[in-house]
Amino acid sequence: MTTARAVLDILPDHVDGRRDFRIFGHFLEHFHRQIYGGVYDPGSHLADERGFRRDVIEALQRIRTPVIRWPGGCFVSAYDWKKGVGERVPCYDKAWRVEEPNSFGTDEFIAFCREVGAEPFICGNAGTGTPEDMSDWVEYCNLDIGEWAALRRANGHDAPFGVRHWSIGNENYGAWEMGAKSAGEWARLVLESAKMMKRVDPDVELAVASIADLDWNVRVLREAGHLLAWVSIHGYWSSASDEGEFERGYDALVARAFEPEQRIITTKHILGSLGYLGRLRIAFDEWNLRGWCHPRFTDFGHVDHSLMDRNDINSNYNMADAVFTACFLNACLRHCDAVGMANFSPAVNTVGAIFTHAEGIVLRPTYHVFDLFTNHSHAEVLHSALSAPVWQPQAEGATAIRQLDAVITHDPSTGAIGIVLVNLHATDAITCRIRGLAPGDGAPALMRTLAGPSVDAFNDIDRPEAVAIETRQLSIADRGDFIIDCPAHSVSVLNLE
Ligand code: AHR
Predict the structure, then answer these.
(1) Cis ω on the peptide bond leading into residue 260 (within 30° of 0)?
(2) β-sheet bridge partners, residue 402
(3) Whose CA is nearest to atom 7 of ligand 1?
(4) C or N: which end of the chain has fewer Cβ atoms within 10 Å?
(5) Where are the beta strands (DSSP E) in 358-403?
């Protein structure tokens, strides 16, 4: 084993930007055990009187979840929100081909978000739904007058919910989506929907289902861009097979760790070329290294729903997921001028950060990455230059990537520094020489590292802390020029007070 060397030069007086905390958001879809048996489990002894899992709420609070997108995903493209308020009407869910009981609807989602302390982000049905349906939903949530506000009051909620974030649609460009649209159809629908939603509540921030593709964006932004605040894009970089097999090779997975940044850059260029950079921001409102196992989704074969249980196998999620997640969040920080929101997909169960079982929860490695970023990085991103060796992952077709990723964050009110360091290498440690901070001695320095005992390490019911954050107190002789060790396959935050 060798130890490679990197150099990180910090320009502490040059602030690249200020992060929007909403990049640490999450997503929940009516899919398998995300809602029922996930966040909502009225039969569980771990649930509160409304049926919400208390342990899940506490876990989401600990990572200061700022925003939760709901109810889909593909589910929303045939969802009738009116069946999920007041008297509940169970129905057939045409996305995932199961019965949807509708017992968790808008009122429950709002109550759940309030418990967590997160802002609700509602994704509207722009598949089979109409501008009227979507704007009725805004009425239900945000108005004092009219038929839908009266229904909310009749359901026990006098005060409007005040939902600020709404998305028009989900992946409506894709053939797999119910009510998929051409770019021209999409532009008209978005314009009419935005018009009606803004007439109900001019303060809503609207996102539009989009993709890093110029043609798709040209039409919709030229027609409706003036009414929008966000373009929504999605990404999953490793697919599960229909049989529920998840990719396991660490090198092949981590070789894709900088691909999300490319997607952000492409989307930024599109916004720039259309004159919208700075006026619209990117909501990367579904993202995960892992795609979900939803067998026969696009070919209409009969679904064996039991295969979806394989999403919940905790050994699928290891240090590759953690390293990828950290690189994704670093990319959002680096491009904080353009990315204002991101929603890890999903929060709970499937390929998410938290796994629920009858007696508790398991925090997967990705959960701890959120802990590092939300609790130990800071609001400003400082300019820096990283010289890191190139690493060739040992996987067929993998391109060489830099071995280390780094972002410097700064709290302008206290002067505290949080340096995120990600060593992507499967086997080799790396040392990083950090230069440029104001010289000074002996200030407290804490290094929190998530590395796990191996690349395949994972957490599970019988080993909940196999992958956990380890904290070291460091003594740094001179903050202006010092060297830090980063173990193989690790995510660290170095805090200098
Ligand atoms: O695999 C999850 C699904 O992927 C979501 O429902 C959808 O939005 C995306 O295509």
Answers:
(1) no
(2) 390
(3) 73
(4) N
(5) 360-363, 380-387, 390-391, 401-402
Integer-rounded Cα Rg, in Å, for the chain is 23
| Cα gap 51→31, rounded to integer Å | 18
Q: Is 292 in the pocket of ligand 1 (CB under 6 A)?
A: yes
Average pLDDT, the chain: 97
**Rounded to two decimals, what is the model's pTM?**
0.98
> How far apart, in whole angstroms, are the C-alpha atoms of residue 348 and residue 27?
9
- CB-based contact 194:100 (threshold 8 Å): no
Instruction: Decide if 456 contacts 436 (C-beta within 8 A).
Output: no
User: 171 in ligand 1 pocket by Cβ < 6 Å?
Assistant: yes
Q: Is the CB of 177 under 6 A from ligand 1?
A: no
Ligand 1 center to residue 96 CA distance, Å?
11
Residues 464-487 pLDDT 10s: 999 999 999 998 989 999 999 999
SS3 at position 53:
strand
Ligand 1 centroid – CA 219 distance (Å): 24
Q: Indicate which residue's Cα is closest to atom 4 of ligand 1.
A: 73
| Residue 449 CA to ligand 1 centre (angstroms) | 31
How far is Cα 78 from Cα 129, in angstroms, rounded to an integer? Answer: 7
Please state the atom number of ligand 1 nearest to the C-alpha of residue 176.
10
